[in-house]
Amino acid sequence: MQDILNYFIFGNTLLNYLSALGIFIGGAAIVYIFKRYVLNRLKKLAAATDTLIDDFLINTIERFLIPIIYFGVFYLTLHTLDLSDGFKHGLGVAAIILITLIVVSAVISAVNFGLQSYLNKSLDSDGGARQLKGISGLINFAIWMIALVFLLDNLGVKISAVVAGLGIGGIAVALAAQAVLGDLFSYFVIFFDKPFEIGDFIIIGDKMGVVEHVGIKTTRIRALGGEQLVFSNTDLTNSRVHNFKKMERRRVVFKLGVTYQTSSEKLKAIPDIVKNAIGAQQDATFDRGHFASYGDFSLNFEFVYYVTGADYNKYMDVQQVINLTVFEAFEAEGIEFAYPTQTVFVHKHQP
Where are the alpha helices (DSSP H) in the chain? Predict the structure, then answer.
């Protein structure tokens, strides 16, 4: 029996292999017990809380840390044996590649979780989720590039000259693509600062419409006429943007004029007539009404009220009801609206 245990296979005795196998089974069993009882218990406790951070941490441990520990047990087990230099080198390369892939995946998962949490706190729409894909794609690409450089460096590849060449090339590319990079940074500004979101009605200069898409370089807006307007992101961040979606209530100013033949009693009654017409609307709040000025052909009144919400159709519905109510009230009171007229007075001179 002793002879069998001392029998050499590839430079190690059978006893060495059995010892290594026992170490691996013991280590794997400890990890399994931890996962089966401790980690599952922590997962249940995390599910009972309102926050999502603990759920994410437990999920990260289960998805990324446990595989690393399993591989670590396997790696340490093999190192208890007498291995050839080539095999050790191959094992080291495999370990570096595997750990790099797992760590990068964990970092990307953490970044995506942070971005998603930010998106949820900002109460973004589906459009924000589409923007998130673009942001996360850029960040993931950058992380993988850094990881690739790190991996090549640890595998013994001389990357100093490559990095220097990439640095010079990067400067040349940056100089040649200033506009593209400017739009890219403006894309990040739009995502994090949120001057507008997909679905918002905005006005930029003399252009207006609903935001349909926010891309890495351009933002597309559906104009009221039906055509699509395309703006560079830099143009938008450098412009004064009127965002009507953010408006909690709309301030409305409207004027009306009556004829000069209107009596003073009726002139005094006009502000109350309009005030009552506005106050009768559920979503309208009267602010003020005044006999504002004497016009060329009319006595001018100015009224101000507020409409709750930013819906333009709702505002027009309220204004329409107010106009009809005022018209009916003026008709009942015999008050005439003014319109452009000229009165010619002829004086007859007696000889």
Answer: 2-5, 14-33, 40-47, 53-60, 66-78, 85-121, 126-154, 160-176, 178-193, 233-237, 264-279, 312-333
Q: Which CATH architecture has domain 193-243?
A: Roll (2.30)
What pLDDT, in 10s, does the model give residues 96-135? 888 888 888 888 888 888 777 766 666 555 555 666 666 7
Q: Summarize pLDDT for 37-53 with one digit per residue, the tens.
A: 888 887 788 777 777 78
Distance CA 22, CA 128 (A): 53
List the chain domain ranges.
2-169, 193-243, 249-333
| Residue recorded with tokens 């409207």 | 254
- Name the residue among 207, 246, 201 with its Cα closest to residue 230: 207
Q: Are 198 and 249 in contact (CB under 8 A)?
A: no
Q: How many CB atoms lie within 10 A of CB 191?
A: 20
326 exposure class (CB count in 10 Å sphere: 0-12, 13-18, 19+):
buried
Selection from 104, 82, 105, 79 nearest residue 92 by Cα: 79
Q: Quote the crossing angle between the two packed helices 85-121 and 66-78, to the nearest 10°.
A: 170
